[in-house]
């Protein structure tokens, strides 16, 4: 019996030792304040160097966690057991979270760098007074193709994807709104349609694409496109920028039927424990220099006008990523469609994944 | 140990565990499956499941995949287990077969991403024979292959143990009596090793239904199993009610299988 | 016969090769200076350097071990107590019911366990963090401990208990001097199995984790979804060596023991 008690004590002791080691490892480089700031962001969506810089400047310790869809993030926050100080939902999700009373108000007056944001990016329809959200990045949904397999210029619209040439050669991003959305646009419908019949038709159209689809994946699409695993990918502009930086054969097109224009935004969830740090961080990220550095790292378009001026010409004049007004007017911003219709989008998309081949 | 008090004292934590982590979760899942998002009682989820062909198809599909995975694993593992009983240094061989199961499952799945991609090792090898890149990753084949790969050790071990227990004299006798190899296998070896095969099958079939990370990473969401569907409904689309419904149906099927085969199912991980 | 053996050997070698190719593939590329697992560039240890300076990954690695140790320890205690309690139940029907309930978590697919625990924690308002993961790991490890300990209890020689009692031992003394030593091997293998269950789990943890807590499996999953990162390869090498060392120790311990057993047997025959 004694031996057993010793064994138990030994195990507990080992745990204690390891626990100490963990706390030592998780200690920030700067030990001024021990407070931590938990950020819940998309994968690979923030320059790690900036995290370090912020930690050095303020002494807060950042815990950085990632999600790979708006919906997954919403689930975790709604579930209630979490205490994220900052999250980064897209615009329709901001509305949805606000409706579900998951968000805390943000006072832009407390953010001295708020003034650097471009006029066309603030006071958007989903948050008219920027009471709940501060724009972080914006971008489009489009088609990435590899000129090794696809003749440059032969893809200009969504309908081109249905061509028999691309059998088993298309990668889709695993996102219900986007994939259902482009099917809707290709049929000439709104990406925000709430008409179930139109949605059904879109699913039928998507199922026709099934044999061309090689996989429905998330962040790893970047790697596969860079490795020439597939000819075509459907994803967001920033992802495309990242891929193109690593493989010169890749090109990005915003289809001419129209596409999605989206905004990712900082929000502060209700459950946040460290609002002061959250404000400090948002303001830090709005600083033109930091915003520019981040935009260069992430590859999405920044809504920060002062930061844009700091960006190299090759980036800010790139029409693929900072589209001209004629393209912009064809783009649609997602609206929150309420739980029922959103569910329909999700269910139909799952049906496509189960069935469309 | 005689006093009633100690008996109760020993029972309390265990009963607490049963109530909290066995009964309550099942009841909650049941509750979710028969309500809608606004907590009204309804059977609409079940209706949806059985009238919408997609769900039935998906269910059939995932049973079909689980069946194939189990079958292929069995076909590969049985000879291996049999030959293993003929080897010297069986302990060492066994260890070598068990060792890979100790490497994290996700790491192995991750390795296959590299192995099977268009520019990966397998395609480089095929390239030597002038076969242009073959699509392997994101196919049904890739999913089945990796799943089988993962399950093989769990099939070899119980079969090995079962064959090991057969008295070699019996096989000897069958051969002496002029039975062909096939006859010996069919009438002696197979029936006698059946308990091992059975526990191997049981150890593989059910986990095969819920390999959702493989359908993602290797199957590229082109294969949707019951596990993937449940995960999607709970974690992504947040339709917990539908997810719970699929879960309840899976539980009912499992119970049915257990009652039909009338045996208790042992899970994975055979003792070293 | 000779030919048969060689065929057998070839087959087994083939199976082994297939089993080890992915692992060695990972290890091989952990030394490559490239960015992917397609072509070996130059030999480098850079990925090991990043690995050992990646505090987050190291912390997760240690936390995974803490989680495994703690959960298996608690599960072993609850499970052993439960097994003893079950063995004392006289009525057959009650006993069978307890055993059936015990086996529910053994046979459920991981996804169901994970989903139902997520629902459970949400209903009770328990936050998703280390605590919820620990509770879940304890929960799914308890039944295996019970199953490992119960046979030992059934095999136990109850005359020993009576004898001890006749000699004036009190309840505690009987428990610690008779019962525990008799079932100790069962407890040990239960602990061991609980440990492997916990270290191996992905699906259940995936459902009930949150708030910055993550285990190695979940972390690898989310990193694998971001593409190939040779740091993960370096991690595999380290883990493989770790397991290898454990297994070698185990191998020598067991073979030694069996030699001892043989010697004892010989002694008995003499």
Using brief descriptors, characterize the structure shown:
heterotrimer; A: 357 residues; alpha/beta; D-Maltodextrin-Binding Protein, domain 2; 3 domains; seven-stranded mixed β-sheet; three-stranded parallel β-sheet; globular; C: 270 residues; mainly alpha; MetI-like fold; disordered C terminus; transport (chain A); periplasm (chain A); Spermidine putrescine ABC superfamily ATP binding cassette transporter, binding protein (chain A); Sperm_putr-bd (chain A); polyamine binding (chain A)
Description of the structure:
The complex is a heterotrimer of chains A (357), B (272) and C (270). Chain A has 14 helices and 10 strands. By secondary structure, chain A is α/β, with parallel strands linked by helices. Chain A has 3 domains: 29 residues; 162 residues, D-Maltodextrin-Binding Protein, domain 2 (3-Layer(aba) Sandwich); 156 residues, Periplasmic binding protein-like II (D-Maltodextrin-Binding Protein, domain 2), CATH 3.40.190.10. The N and C termini of chain A lie far apart (62 Å). In chain B, helix 1 packs across helix 12. The longest helix of chain B is centred in the first third of the chain and has 33 residues. Chain B is globular and about 70 Å long. Chain C has a domain of 182 residues: MetI-like fold. Chain C is globular, with a radius of gyration of 24 Å. The C terminus of chain C is likely disordered. Classes of the chains: A alpha/beta (357), B mainly alpha (272), C mainly alpha (270). Chains in contact: A-B, A-C, B-C. Chains A and C meet through helix 1, strand 2 and helix 7 of A and helix 3, helix 5 and helix 8 of C.
Concise overview:
The complex is a heterotrimer of chains A (357), B (272) and C (270). Chain B has twelve helices and no strands. By secondary structure, chain B is an all-alpha fold.
């Amino acid at each position: 019996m004694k031996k057993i008690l010793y064994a138990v004590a030994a195990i507990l002791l080992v745990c204690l030792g390891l626990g100490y080691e963990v706390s030592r490892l998780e200690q920030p480089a700067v030990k001024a304040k021990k407070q931590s700031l938990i950020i819940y962001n998309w994968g690979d969506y923030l320059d790690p160097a900036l995290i370090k810089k912020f930690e050095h400047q303020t002494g807060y310790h950042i815990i950085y966690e990632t999600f790979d869809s708006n919906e997954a993030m919403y689930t975790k926050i709604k579930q209630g057991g979490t205490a994220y100080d900052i999250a980064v939902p897209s615009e329709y999700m901001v509305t949805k979270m606000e409706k579900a009373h998951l968000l805390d108000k943000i006072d832009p007056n407390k953010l001295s760098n708020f003034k650097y944001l471009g006029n066309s990016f603030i006071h958007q329809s989903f948050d008219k007074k920027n009471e709940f959200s501060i724009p972080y990045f914006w971008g489009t949904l489009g088609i990435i193709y590899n000129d090794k397999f696809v003749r440059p210029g032969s893809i200009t619209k969504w309908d081109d994807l249905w061509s028999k040439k691309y059998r088993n050669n298309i990668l889709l991003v695993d996102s219900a709104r986007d994939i259902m959305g482009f099917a809707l646009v290709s049929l000439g419908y709104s990406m925000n349609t709430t008409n179930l019949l139109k949605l059904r038709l879109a699913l039928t159209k998507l199922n026709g694409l099934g044999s061309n689809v090689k996989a429905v994946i998330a962040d790893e699409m970047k790697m596969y496109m860079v490795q020439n695993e597939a000819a075509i990918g459907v994803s967001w502009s920033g992802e495309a920028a990242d891929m193109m930086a690593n493989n010169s054969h890749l090109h990005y097109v915003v289809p001419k039927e129209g596409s999605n224009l989206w905004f990712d935004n900082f929000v502060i969830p209700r459950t946040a424990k460290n609002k002061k740090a959250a404000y400090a961080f948002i303001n830090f990220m709005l600083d033109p220099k930091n915003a520019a550095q981040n935009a260069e790292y992430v590859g999405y378009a920044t809504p920060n006008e002062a930061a844009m001026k700091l960006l190299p010409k090759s980036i800010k004049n790139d029409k693929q990523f900072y589209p001209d007004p004629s393209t912009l007017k064809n783009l649609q911003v997602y609206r929150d469609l309420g739980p029922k219709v959103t569910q329909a989008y999700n269910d139909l998309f799952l049906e496509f994944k189960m069935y469309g081949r | 140990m005689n006093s009633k008090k100690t008996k109760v004292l020993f029972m309390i934590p265990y009963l607490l565990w049963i109530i909290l982590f066995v009964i309550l979760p099942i009841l909650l899942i049941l509750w979710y499956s028969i309500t809608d998002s606004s907590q009204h009682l309804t059977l609409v989820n079940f209706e949806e499941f059985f009238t919408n062909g997609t769900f039935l198809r998906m269910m059939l599909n995932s049973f079909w995949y689980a069946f194939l995975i189990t079958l292929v694993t069995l076909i590969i593992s049985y000879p291996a287990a049999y030959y293993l009983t003929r080897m010297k240094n069986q302990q060492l061989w066994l260890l070598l077969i068990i060792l890979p199961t100790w490497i994290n499952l996700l790491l192995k799945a991750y390795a296959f991403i590299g192995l099977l991609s268009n520019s990966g090792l397998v395609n480089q090898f095929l390239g030597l024979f002038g076969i242009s890149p073959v699509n392997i990753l994101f196919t049904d084949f890739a999913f089945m292959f990796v799943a089988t790969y993962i399950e093989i050790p769990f099939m070899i071990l119980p079969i090995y143990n079962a064959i090991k227990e057969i008295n070699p004299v019996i096989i000897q006798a069958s051969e002496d009596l002029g039975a062909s190899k096939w006859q010996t296998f069919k009438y002696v070896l197979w029936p006698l090793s059946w308990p091992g095969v059975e526990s191997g099958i049981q150890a593989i079939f059910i986990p095969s239904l819920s390999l959702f990370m493989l359908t993602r990473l290797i199957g590229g969401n082109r294969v949707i199993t019951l596990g993937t569907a449940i995960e999607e409904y709970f974690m992504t689309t947040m339709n917990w009610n539908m997810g719970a419904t699929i879960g309840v149906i899976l539980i009912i099927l499992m119970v049915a299988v257990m009652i039909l085969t009338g045996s208790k199912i042992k899970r994975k991980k055979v003792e070293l | 016969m000779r030919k048969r053996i060689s065929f057998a050997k070839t087959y087994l070698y083939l199976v082994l090769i297939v089993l080890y190719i992915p692992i060695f593939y990972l290890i091989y590329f952990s030394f490559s200076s490239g960015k992917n697992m397609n072509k070996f560039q130059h030999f480098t240890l850079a990925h090991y350097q990043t690995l050992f300076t990646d505090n987050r990954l190291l912390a997760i690695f240690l936390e995974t071990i803490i989680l495994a140790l703690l959960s298996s320890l608690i599960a072993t205690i609850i499970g052993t107590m439960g097994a003893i309690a079950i063995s004392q139940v006289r009525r057959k029907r009650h006993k069978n019911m307890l055993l059936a309930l015990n086996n529910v978590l053994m046979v459920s697919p991981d996804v169901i366990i994970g989903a139902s625990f997520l629902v459970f924690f949400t209903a009770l308002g328990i936050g998703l963090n280390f605590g919820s993961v620990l509770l879940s790991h304890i929960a799914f490890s308890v039944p295996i401990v019970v199953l490992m300990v119960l046979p030992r209890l059934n095999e136990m020689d109850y005359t020993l208990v009576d004898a001890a009692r006749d000699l004036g031992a009190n309840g505690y003394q009987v428990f610690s001097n008779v019962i525990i030593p008799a079932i100790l091997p069962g407890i040990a293998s239960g602990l061991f199995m609980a440990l492997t269950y916990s270290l191996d789990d992905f699906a259940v943890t995936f459902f009930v984790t949150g708030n910055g807590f993550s285990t190695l499996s979940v972390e690898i999953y989310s990193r694998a979804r971001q593409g190939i990162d040779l740091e993960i390869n370096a991690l595999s090498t380290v883990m493989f060596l770790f397991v290898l060392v454990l297994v070698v120790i185990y191998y020598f311990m067991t073979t030694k023991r069996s030699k001892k057993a043989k010697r004892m047997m010989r002694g008995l025959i003499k």
